[in-house]
């Protein structure tokens, strides 16, 4: 059974997100080819899940993409490609796809569909994905994302540095903070992108 | 201390149809309503400053509370200038915060920013300001205060060591985040009281006028501001401030120069001259 999670970003209630996480992906090349061909049936954000740090990381990229879409300032082809682009700290679209998008060797995949019209529902997306994605389904959650995260590669791409700081325990969390040092820095970097 | 919106100028606020006080400016998209009943998440106005409005709301998920700082358009400015200034200030604040975060200084994380629209969403810091914590403490013991001061100084030192002058450095802009407290957002952003008010980590907030500067002058001025704010807000512990300066002097390489500059800065100001 396909696991699909529907999340709605605060302040953007009209466009819920459908998220589906996969592991042991077998047809990465096929899916990537659909994107390259611009196949309209495959308008998804296909992300290499190992480059994702946490649920907040994913949602921040989605917010950025959706907000830019609504303000009429998309820089890539559509809101889904913009999600991939928003993850990247710099402004090179092709590079963002190479780093965060699906490649022929991707094994852990996060598929995101933005509900851009009533045509797309959780059910329709779930059905379509289960038909075309050959992989094992995993329930999307913060914990599942963190488990599969390649921290070293992520830190390198965001140039997060190794020190993390020693002042008042900023590298870890001081007293029950929701965001730890690296995650906070990455979210800030994504927020500032394009400035 | 609870957060209540305190009306300042009479024309800053108006009453809406249900006779509730709300600020004159409404939030830009996508935050277009302030708090509609029945709509989640609820967004509450917390403070209205001269420059910006501060709201409590959620960002990315209902479990992530955030401080939303919005700089509304200023009608008394030329519109092009206003747009540029607002944009520049939002970006400056966001950049300083992110830079600090990267260097490991304890500041809130930037969650999102709309610099054309004039807003920045920052991680919500639960706890009380250092100012309130100092007020809340009934008795004083020199040792514990010194260690607390040390924590505060470390934070400021890191900033100055990295050529960032915080500006408006007062104990109101230092948040004390209690250790061992859960970070539940909750509906009311009330300050938590810890059993021992000085357990916790210190987070620096409010970078509205922060600048990246390597000038001793700027750092000395910030120290002076802190000194004066300290003396006027917390006179009962004023005698402990030299400890703070001492720790500062030992903290990083250029610190002693800044302390000497501080003496110059103190000499200035109105009515400080012995002549006439």
Helix-strand blueprint:
The complex is a heterodimer of chains A (195) and B (276).
Chain A: E1 5-7, E2 17-23, H1 28-37, E3 45-48, H2 55-70, H3 79-87, H4 93-100, E4 109-114, H5 122-132, E5 136-138, H6 142-148, H7 151-158, H8 181-192
Antiparallel strand pairs in A: 1-2, 2-4, 2-5, 3-4
Chain B: E1 13-15, E2 21-23, E3 44-48, E4 53-59, E5 61-70, H1 79-103, E6 110-114, E7 119-123, E8 128-129, H2 130-136, H3 142-161, E9 164-165, E10 174-177, E11 201-204, E12 211-212, H4 216-233, H5 241-249, H6 255-267
Antiparallel strand pairs in B: 1-2, 3-4, 4-5, 5-7, 6-7, 8-10, 9-12, 10-11
Helix pairs in contact in B: 3-5, 4-6
Q: How would you sum up this structure, described in words?
A:
The complex is a heterodimer of chains A (195) and B (276). Chain A is α+β, with helices and mostly antiparallel strands and 195 residues long. Chain A has one domain: PF0523-like. Helices cover 42% and strands 12% of the residues of chain A. Chain A has 8 helices and 5 strands, in the order E-E-H-E-H-H-H-E-H-E-H-H-H. In chain A, strands 1, 2, 3, 4 and 5 form a 5-stranded antiparallel β-sheet that branches. In chain A, helix 2 packs parallel to helix 8. The N and C termini of chain A lie far apart (43 Å). About 8% of the residues of chain A have low confidence. With 276 residues, chain B is α+β, with helices and mostly antiparallel strands. Helices cover 33% and strands 19% of the residues of chain B. Chain B contains 6 helices and 12 strands. Chain B has a 5-stranded antiparallel β-sheet with strand order 3-4-5-7-6, with helices on one face. In chain B, strands 8-10-11 form a 3-stranded antiparallel β-sheet. In chain B, strands 1-2 form a two-stranded antiparallel sheet. In chain B, strand 1 and strand 2 form a beta hairpin. The termini of chain B are far apart. The relative contact order of chain B is 0.12. The chains are: A alpha+beta (195), B alpha+beta (276).
């Amino acid at each position: 059974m396909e696991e699909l999670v529907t999340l709605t970003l605060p302040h953007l209630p009209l466009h819920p997100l459908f998220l589906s996480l996969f592991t042991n992906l077998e047809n990465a090349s096929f899916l990537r080819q659909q994107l390259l061909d611009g196949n309209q049936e495959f308008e998804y954000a296909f992300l290499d899940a190992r480059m994702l740090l946490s649920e907040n990381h994913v949602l921040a990229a989605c917010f950025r993409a959706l907000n830019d879409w609504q303000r009429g300032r998309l820089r890539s082809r559509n809101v889904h490609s913009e999600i991939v682009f928003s993850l990247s700290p710099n402004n090179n679209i092709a590079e963002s796809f190479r780093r965060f998008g699906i490649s022929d060797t991707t094994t852990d995949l996060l598929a995101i569909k933005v509900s851009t019209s009533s045509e797309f529902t959780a059910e329709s997306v779930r059905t379509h994905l289960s038909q075309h994605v050959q992989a094992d389904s995993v329930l999307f959650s913060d914990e599942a994302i963190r488990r599969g995260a390649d921290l070293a590669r992520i830190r390198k791409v965001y140039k997060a540095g190794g020190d993390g700081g020693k002042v008042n325990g900023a590298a870890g969390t001081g007293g029950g903070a929701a965001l730890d040092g690296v995650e906070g820095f990455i979210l800030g970097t994504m927020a500032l992108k394009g400035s | 201390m609870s957060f209540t919106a305190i009306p300042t100028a009479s024309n800053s606020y108006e009453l809406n149809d249900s006779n509730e006080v709300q600020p004159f400016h409404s939030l830009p998209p996508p935050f277009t309503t302030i708090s509609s009943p029945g709509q989640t998440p609820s967004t509450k106005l917390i403070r209205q400053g001269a420059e910006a409005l501060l709201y409590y709301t959620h960002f990315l998920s209902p479990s992530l509370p955030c401080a939303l700082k919005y700089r509304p358009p200023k009608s008394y400015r030329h519109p092009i200038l206003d747009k540029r200034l607002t944009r520049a200030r939002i970006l400056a604040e966001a950049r300083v915060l992110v830079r600090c975060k990267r260097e490991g200084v304890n500041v809130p994380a930037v969650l999102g920013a709309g610099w054309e629209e004039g807003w920045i969403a920052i991680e919500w810091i639960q706890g009380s300001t250092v100012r309130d914590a100092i007020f809340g403490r009934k008795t004083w013991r020199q040792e514990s205060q010194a260690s607390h001061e040390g924590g505060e100084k470390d934070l400021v030192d890191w900033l100055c060591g990295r050529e960032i002058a915080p500006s408006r450095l007062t104990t109101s802009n230092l948040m004390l985040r209690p250790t061992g407290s859960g970070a539940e957002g909750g509906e009311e952003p009330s300050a938590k009281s810890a059993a021992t008010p000085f357990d916790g980590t210190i987070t620096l907030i409010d970078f509205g006028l922060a600048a990246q500067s390597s000038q001793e002058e700027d750092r000395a001025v910030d120290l002076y501001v802190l000194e004066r704010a300290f003396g006027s807000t917390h006179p009962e512990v004023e005698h402990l401030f030299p400890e703070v300066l001492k720790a500062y002097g030992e903290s990083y390489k250029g610190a002693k120069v800044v302390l000497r500059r501080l003496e110059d800065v103190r000499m200035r100001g109105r009515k400080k001259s012995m002549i006439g």
